Amino acid sequence: MDVLTAIAILTLGAALLGAALGFAAVHFRVEGNPLTEKIAALLPQTQCGQCGYPGCKPYAEAIAQGGADINLCAPGGEDGVRKIAELLGLEIKPLAEGAAQKPPAVARIVEDRCIGCTLCIQACPVDAIVGAAKQMHTVISSLCTGCELCLPPCPENCIEMLPVQETTENWAWRYPARVPALPPLALSPAASGENSC
Amino acid sequence: MIPLSSPYLRRSNSTRRIMRLVLLSLLPGIAVYAALIGPALLIQILLASLAALGFEFAVFFLRKRPARAALTDHSALVSAWLIALTFPPLSPWWLTITGVFFAIVITKQLYGGLGQNPFNPAMVAFAVCIIAFPALMSQWPAMSLSLSLPEQLELIFGFAPRLDALTSATPLDVIKTVLQKTAGITHGTVQELLMSQNLYGTFAGRGWEWVATAYLVGGVFLLIMGVITWHVPLAFIASMTLIALVFWIIDPSRFSAPLFHLFSGGSMLGAFFIATDPVSGCATPRGKIIFGIGAGLLAYLIRVFGVFPDGIAFSILLMNLCAPLLDSMSQPAVFGSRPQVRVPGEKTP
Amino acid sequence: MLKRPLAFRGGIRLAHHKYESAHSPIASAPLPERLILPLRQSAGRAPEPIVREGDRVKKGDRIAAAEEWISASLHAPTSGTVRAIGPFPVAHPSGLSAPAIVIEADGADEWGEKTPLLDSPARSAANRAALSPEETQRFLQNMGVVGLGGAVFPSHVKLSRAPNTPLQTLIINGAECEPFITCDDRLMRERADDVISGTLFLRDLLEVKETLIAVENNKPEAADALRAALARADAAREIRDVAVMELPAIYPAGSIKQLIFALTGKRAPAHVLPTALGVQCFNAATVYCVWRAVAHGEPVTHRVVTLTGNVEHPGNMEVPLGMPMGQLLALARPRPETDACIVGGPMMGFLLTDERAPVVKGSNCLIARSDAFFPPLEPETSCIRCTSCAQVCPQGLQPYELYWWSRAKNSEKAARYQLMECIECGCCAYVCPAHIPLVQYFRFAKGEVRAAEKAQDMAARAKERFEFRQLRAEREKAERAEKLARAAALQAEKLALAAVTDTDSPANAQTPTTENAP
Amino acid sequence: MSSYIFLLISAVLVNNIVFVKILGLCPFMGVSKKRETAYGMGVATTFVLTFATGACFVIDHHLLTPFGLDYLRTIAFIITIAAVVQLTEMIIAKTSPALQQTLGIYLPLITTNCAVLGVPLLNISRDHGFVESLLFGAGSAIGFSLALILFAGIRERMESADIPRPFQGAAIAMITAGLMSLAFMGFAGLDR
Predict the structure, then answer these.
(1) What is the DSSP string of C25-38?
(2) Among A173, B37, C257, D33, which residue is least crowded by beta carbons within 10 Å?
(3) Chain D residue whose CA is closest to C413
């Protein structure tokens, strides 16, 4: 008898709770995954496809659904992995093999070899190449994300990647080294004697 | 070597100098304490100092890092001295060394060394030892007891039976134990009770009051030298005074006067030397004030209502817990972000 | 108007080291054989060269023209021949090269045509109503007038009025709060009349209510000279609203936000230009250049540079822009143990990496460094959060927190502690007992923050363009599909029509099937 | 009234569920890396714990005891708690996606948070009435949140400390929790 009551009560309880959960599942349904947008915001949007997905958003979707690893984005680098890991509360991983971060670069078309085939224009995910059929094409370097997607289609191999040069305008201070290395200046008194007024 | 980045000018000051000033300002307290208790205190200080330097060296050796800078910055000595001053002066040698181990190795070096420990090393040492060895940590020698140096040495290093006769209740112990035992029996004010036990001096616990006064003098010296700011000591003393005053007014037969609390136990040492520890404490001005208030209140509550004879160590550790949070919540306004002065003639939108 | 300057929070008192270089008058530097003129000498866009290799130029001729509003022109400091246009070492902490125009001096130092703005009695100091502000702004841009205090912001831009706030106060910044530098001091002493005339010119142009000339109280001679000049100007026409204010010598009194607060009590919030508070600020040397340009038609081709530190003959020199700094410092005869040269002041300057780098508009001081004058590098020890840095920070920041996160390369966290509000004055690093190069950590972290912002911008733009491209592709696809559908529909209709006409003649009832067969 | 206050003080500070009872350590360790997550976890746990204590009290007193099914207590409580957690998760997902995101995978972890099971069981063993049970539940939850938030504050700073390699990560976090627990022992005796 006791056993029967126990079973009955537990069944009843389970049924009640199950009903409540079922009701909640219908009533508090959430459409879509808001995570995708958040992850996409952390990706560099180069649309390079190096992660194996056809763009940044598909990759973000894949991460949000748990299908993809977070360390596949090469342009995002270690910093990008760290940010995604922080967002999702996962452990930080090193970049996946083959997904090494390259120094920032922009594409440049060697103009005297360009035949005006427009293949690179079609390949560029951000419309950063301008030109018309049979006319020379040019990369707008300020829009170029350096995704290298224009390299394979070019029949003439006339697109090259130029690493972004450091100038006095984009230079930034380095992390303080414990021992700075600076050669002493040639401000010897001998030099000063020649030019004294 | 030339610094790479400006400023190329630097005020001559160093962490070592700051630590030296702290040690220097502890000297009056040590002098008075040692005069009252005997050379045992100095032995403890020496013992703790050697142990602290030894442990620091060991950690740096194990981490394969140069230990020189850490050994000469005197920060380990500050922790060591505070341990020696807060432990009973006739503690056995291994108790002091255990305390130093917890302070230097566990609390400080495991967190990366100087400047990175979230807890005050000396107070962790005290808390660990009072929980692990409550009996040993409450054997305070009577102020009137005068032992010769060999006797003291034997107590610290030897296997002599630890005679309870040698120890006596501190004024704070009396308040806690005697008052609880005699609850309901009228015995006049707490002050009269202490007087009857020959434990009351001029304005607080006999003997201890002068040690505390000497700490106060050292603390004021630190303030004047700019090593500490006024926030923590003032907030600590004010909050402790206030809460003691409230309880004292309610029932002077169960609670003692504020002055007594300020000059008993570790109040002064805590207010000026421990709660002001910049590493484990708060850094913003408002944070420091909250830290001081919290430490003062908790110290009183734990000392009077808790199970431990003194509350300084626990109150400071508890405030250490809150320090990162308090700091981030009390960030001062950046220059200009306060409401600006209205420009005369300017139209308000 | 405040009776006496207010004290701003924080700051430090420094040994001035001003006397060494301030006691002798400004000397003229000899003309070097070659002048190197980096194109970028002001904030904003670098001007475009308008000369070519081999061109002859005269002193004061424009050699590079500003093409954007936030940009200023560049002029030849002497007569000669353009020898090269290309990258050349410049005075920059990076030690990198930058595009420059190289002029070989012919020694004649022959002026080109001078066209002052106040060129006729109708447009003189007494009657300036004929001038429009826009005309003046364009004139100053063409004359290459930029802030000579160090930030080199084009001055004409600062003459634009904020749309809503009328300007109340004009501040002439002669504080010169960094130790060692005395170029503004000497300039104010020796050429006070020009400084006052320039001040009055700007005052009339901006139509401000009050004009305050701020001088630190360690330069009483400069203040006296300015007051005397003001009295002389007052004799010509009544001036009531201009005053010389002496500030207590607390570094960084000359920093713009601190200066505005000290003189007016207004606090400039983050990211707010002083004009929004009704205040505009010009450096004293800039004001001098404004006057030389408008009254005498002289563009900015020279500047006064302080030569001091570990040298035999400290002093100030009027130097043609483009003179190599090593050559210039040699004129002051550095003593033997000199091991480096600091460009700018000892608190905010940087080390010269190449002695061929030329003097530019922003170079106010060259200091020969030696261990006797400047403490050598000491090893960085652990921060114990002593908060000395927070106590002296004039911006009210918590440098120890900024350091904690900058050191961990967590610039996001540092930015949350208002890293970007740091003015890099160096007070924190000056007082730090742990010898931490705080400012360098902050400069590094700021670079990281800016890089992250830039990357974020790039990503946002790339995303927008990518999404638009996809949208377009989809639209094209849809249009194509629609076209196909329409074509198919048309075809079907035609067929149906044909079928209808066919059914009319039962004899041909079977033909559609054969027609439809491919 | 004062007994209620002491009960609350006891649950929050003196007998802190994490530092003194050493319960609920998985979320305490797992969700304390960032302060924002700690706040969210604290709120969620407070809600779940208070609600679960109430529900468990009702089930125990009105279902299990009358039928003499005390031996089913543990399993019944676990089922109840699991259901409450599921409900909370769905409600949070609907009402606050941001919170849902910061809590991430940790919200379901509340199910296995032994504190949530421990508190109702303690309530039974201490013969707490309904109000006392709720207070004890809420107090324990507040104590848990407090511990979590304080710990997160310290861990955020420790993140960039130069901790010896063998102690990085979980090891130093455990030591820190131990030292915090040590500090909380200072409250001993304050609930009398």
Answers:
(1) PPEEPPPPSEEEEE
(2) D33
(3) D156
Write the DSSP string, C241-284: SEEEEEEP--BTTTSHHHHHHHHH-----TT--GGGGTEEEEEH
| Residue B348 in contact with partner chain C when CB distance is under 8 A | no
What's CA B293's distance to the chain center, in Å?
15
Task: Report how far residue B35's alpha carbon sits from residue A60's, in angstroms, rounded to the nearest whole number.
Answer: 72
Give per-residue pLDDT as tens, B132-174: 998 888 888 776 666 777 777 777 877 665 655 566 677 777 7
Instruction: Report residue C12: phi and psi, to 5°.
Output: -140, 155
The confidence score (pLDDT) of residue A174 equals 87
Nearest to A43 by CA among C446, D101, C466, D104: C466
Which H/E stretch holds residue C280? strand C279-283
Q: Can you give the pLDDT at residue D46?
A: 87
β-strand partners of C89: C97
Residues in chain D: 192
**What burial class does residue C122 get, using C-beta atoms within 10 Å of its C-beta: 0-12 exposed, 13-18 middle, 19+ buried?**
exposed
Task: Annotate A151-183 with b (16+ C-beta within 10 A) or e (fewer).
Answer: eeebeeebbebeeeeeebeeeebeebeeebeee
Whether D182 shows a pLDDT value over 90: the answer reads yes
> Distance (Å, rounded) from C-alpha B96 to C-alpha B98?
5
Cα Rg of chain C, angstroms = 31
Could you tell me the two tokens for B221?
């010296």
Query: What type of residue is D50?
Result: T
Q: What is the pLDDT of residues A61-108, one digit of tens each?
A: 888 877 788 888 888 888 888 888 877 777 778 887 777 777 888 888
Nearest to B146 by CA among B75, B67, B89, B66: B89
Q: Rounded to whole angstroms, how far apart are CA atoms D136 and D130? A: 10
CA-CA distance, C100 to C76, in Å (whole number)?
Answer: 12
Handedness of CA A14, A16, A21, A23 (dihedral sign): positive
- Alpha carbons B214 and B208: distance in angstroms, whole number: 10
> Is A105-174 a CATH 3.40.50.1820 domain?
no
For chain B, which residues make up each domain, given as ranges? 12-168, 169-327
Which residues of chain C make contact with D159, given a CB cutoff of 8 A? Answer: 408, 410
Substitution target from C380, C400, C405, C409 for chain D, most D beta carbons within 10 A: C405
Give yes or no for residue B50 having a pLDDT over 90. yes
CA distance C322 to C317: 14
D116 vs D81: CA distance, rounded Å: 7
**Dist CA C94 CA C414 (whole Å):** 23
Spans of chain C, pLDDT less than 50 = 506-518
The SS3 call for residue A138 is strand
Cα angle for residues C372, C377, C381 (degrees, 5° grid): 140
Of residues B278, B281, B313, the one with CA closest to residue B298 = B313
CATH code 1.10.15.40 for A34-88: yes
**Domain ranges, ordered by start, for chain A:** 34-88, 105-174
Q: Which two tokens stand for residue C161?
A: 């009025």
The minimum CA-CA distance between C347 and chain D, rounded to whole Å, is 29
> What is the C-alpha separation between C283 and C306, in angstroms, rounded?
16
CA dist list (Å): C158 to B199, C175, C241:
76, 19, 21
* CB within 8 Å of chain C, chain B residues 309-328: 327
Q: Of the candidates C383, C433, C437, which has its C-beta nearest B14's C-beta?
A: C433
What pLDDT, on the 0 to 100 scale, is given for residue B144? 65
Asked, as a colleague might, if the bond just before C252 is cis with ω within 30 of 0, I would say yes
Q: Say what the alpha-carbon torsion angle C273, C11, B18, B33 is, to the nearest 10 degrees.
A: -110
C-alpha B260/C-alpha B303 separation (Å) is 13
Which tokens hold the place of C184?
Answer: 């503004």
The percent of residues in chain B predicted with pLDDT above 70, rounded, is 89
How many CA atoms lie within 13 Å of C145's alpha carbon, on the beta-carbon side? 29
